[in-house]
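Record type: ASSEMBLY
Status: queued
Input:
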Amino acid sequence: MGVLGKVSHVEHDNVRPADHAPLILSSVRAGVITSPRESVFDIAIPCDYNLSSIVNGGVTMNLRLETRDALAELNPQQRQAVQIEHGPVLVLAGPGSGKTRVLTHRVGFLVHESGVAPWSLMAVTFTNKAAREMKERLTSVTSADGWDGLLTARQLQSLMLGTFHSICARILRREIEALPGWDRNFVIYDAGDQLSLMRQALRDLNLDAKRYRPAAIHSIISNAKNELIGPGTFQARTYTEEIAARVYLRYQSLLRENNALDFDDLLMKTVELFRERDDLLSAYQDRYLHVLVDEFQDTNMSQYELVKLLVGKHRNLFAVADEDQSIYSWRGADYRNVLRFRDDFPEHHLVLLEQNYRSTTTILEAAKYIIRKNPHRVDKNLFTQRGDGVKVEVAEAYDEQDEARFVVSEIARLEAGSKVLPSHCAVMYRTNAQSRVLEEEFIRRGMKYRLVRGTRFYERKEVKDAIAYLRLIYNPHDSVSMLRVINTPARGIGAQTIAALEHWAFKLEVSISDALLKLQAEANGQGLPIPSPFGARARQALLRYADLLQTLIAARDQLTLPELFDLTLARSGYRDFVRDGTREGDDRWENLLELRGVTQEYASLDASESLSLFLEQVALVSDVDGLTEDQRGPALLTLHAAKGLEFPVVFIVGLDEGLLPHMRSMDDLDAMEEERRLCYVGMTRAMDRLYLLHTFRRTIHGANELSVSSRFLADLPANLIAGQPSSASGRDTQRATLASRSAPSKGARPVTGWARGSGDVTPPPSNAPRFQVGDTVVHTKFGEGVVITSNITDDDQEVEVAFPDQGIKRLSANFAPMQKKGEG
DNA sequence: GGACAAGTATTTTTT
DNA sequence: ATACTTGTCC
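Status: finished
Output:
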């Protein structure tokens, strides 16, 4: 069973290339001609025996069938998950266990073996990247033998595959008018727009944005939406929530007035729609017979509810989850949805994917030591057949600069010695702020690197401005876009004028764009109930702006999207505004050309439709294909951004208390568990080599402070580790600092002498160190101990001393009552 | 309307 | 330290 067949040659008389209809096969359900060219047909046929003839409407064709058993590519656990034909399935998948493979093969299985039409399948991911990856893996050539993927391009197209948000947007685009007061031409507000609108809402309520941070209020409202709590039912429990409750009402009515939905609304409104309209729900339930959800542990309440509604009739929900990789609870993700799944679908099949195809045994074992300390989890028995590999390197750097030097030197060393490509290395950290020091070091050493994250393309000011113009043309009631561009470039409409305009529009009970129309009417001699309040100069400026908008809106349905784009930038003066002759101006213009390139993909579409689709894509996709960084250097990224990726060599830096685990998680057990998962996610990205770095001291918010190494390091057993044991582990073995390892001939040299080779070796300090690494010292209070690290500062020497009974202490040579054994 | 000073807050950020 | 916002002055 499970054979995917491909027919390369067909001998036939009566079949024309236009025969795209499914072929009716003897004893087999269906196959589809996929790419007819001349007399050669590619046909994907589900089949488990050799077939010599097929019948198409009574016509028999002779063909040669080559077969491939797609299921043979799976391990028993994976195969089990793929093959379940009906009912809910929960797949608990460890890192690197091939869950994308299971998802894609299941889609293939359902289509080819179960005879489910591709358009009856919905596959949901969290990121565009994951969706893209699934698409690629469904169709791309999978091996050198020339096999096509699991689906034909045509089948893939009919599949509902996308992020929660994009799927909801598609549904709402069709159905939202079933909810009173909404219009199918809604725009989608991204994070920045949402914040602007939040500020507007605060201002409308005379609340001080200083006192009530828009981001904080927004986060409360967002959380409420994710739990499907509407503005009317929101129950405040604290003073801030009291404020948030009031803002929520205003914020939501602003969205309505602007005919806009924010990200959370996309989910919430879809749930609302299905809850209120049984008929629609039923239709969608029958349309999507199978729903597959990736990263199920990351679903929030509204996503869970949505999925539950959709599969309510047929109960064919296939969810892949790893509770140990749940790292987005602060965004409303709730891994307990996995538990809810088990309660709500008691008849479910449970499949565990425990074989890891990514990491060495050493790395996987080390990661398991970290994660197993979390209570309340189903312990998976992860294993790998990759062999032991090398030990995990744990090392202490003097400070974050030293840490960066270690990373860069080690990457260079691996490249020279082990022929490891720098692009196969990744450096991961807890906070984005940590990237700067690393970048500086890469630059100093003249090495390329890729900063994963960057300012995202669609978040660049010029791109947002251009999009705001287009959005305004699409939906003139969009006040966020209106306020964004009304005076960009400057056209004499200042804050005073804008405030007066808003106020006037408010009194007229119309949107700003309608107010501009009224102003034009007034200028043409028409009387108004409330005359406009502007001085001559402001009026002039506003009228010119109104004319601009009118011109552009009139052009909307006449031009192709790239033409409209060009016209907009030219007429608005934005083009000249950006191209100001500076270097930065050229860069910004480059970005706009890049954006124009995106509009070109929509050039052939109907004018009215193209703008809508383009704006949707822009709102829901945060990066542009092909625009991603070049692949040459090592990747620098946050631990969050690392999820779903893998690298042969991984460095995790900043394993210091306060950073990882982060300070903010210290007094919250749940948050601390999430920090642990975050560490686990980072470690399990590594295929061959894993480095865990911490520092002796570190600059935090400008202040230089002694570090305490992460509690996570203390959870690693000695047999998996190379390099020093961590100080948190309490072992007082001789420690090799990074510096002494880099320059073994000068084992006792202070750590600061990290730079190798080049001439910038730190000169020996004039105040000669009193203690050397390895010295035995006597402390009046702690007794005898061994110096294990040493660092010379401007006017002092800092040492760490291992006392057999007291553990490791950090001491100042000047002040500590301590001296070398045998002296004094 | 733009430049500068002062004040403030600094985790992560799939959409 | 630093980046970012807001307020004030020309």
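Annotation: The first strand of chain A starts at residue 3 and ends at 11.
Annotation: The mean pLDDT of chain A is 81.
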